[in-house]
Design a protein that fits this description.
By secondary structure, the chain is α/β, with parallel strands linked by helices. The protein has 3 helices and 6 strands. Helix 1 runs antiparallel to helix 2.
């Protein structure tokens, strides 16, 4: 499972926004061989006055995942950038990705710890 919070100054709507969100989700899940439905993405556009001045649009991605090796994080980062590049040029968007890893005992879904699901006897 991966949870992604995207805080952005990008002004996109409708089909393009849905496609960007879907591509970002795929970039985080499918490369690991995970079902794309094992993700949760929150797209939070903010008005320009809520950002410091930048020459390019901002896309800050906070990616919450179980622990991964540095090589897997590099691969995920490259896949995220490829997904962004399919929609925007690098001169348009400044993409920042922050990984937050969590152990199974620190994640719950629907009232059940992930640790309890993975450690059933």
């Amino acid at each position: 499972m991966a949870s992604i919070i995207a805080i952005t100054s990008l002004k996109i709507e409708g089909d393009i926004k849905e496609q960007v969100i879907d591509e970002l989700g795929n970039a985080v899940t499918t490369w690991m061989g995970k079902d794309p439905s094992l993700r949760s993405i929150m797209w939070l556009p903010l008005p320009d006055e809520n950002f410091s001045i930048h020459e390019r649009a901002i896309l800050n991605l906070f990616v919450f995942i179980p622990p991964k090796t540095i090589d897997l994080k590099r691969e995920m980062l490259q896949n995220i950038q490829k997904a962004v590049d399919r929609f925007f040029s690098r001169t348009e968007v400044n993409t920042i990705v922050i990984f937050k890893e969590h152990a199974d005992e620190n994640v719950g879904k629907d009232g059940v710890l992930r640790w309890d699901v993975t450690n059933k006897k």
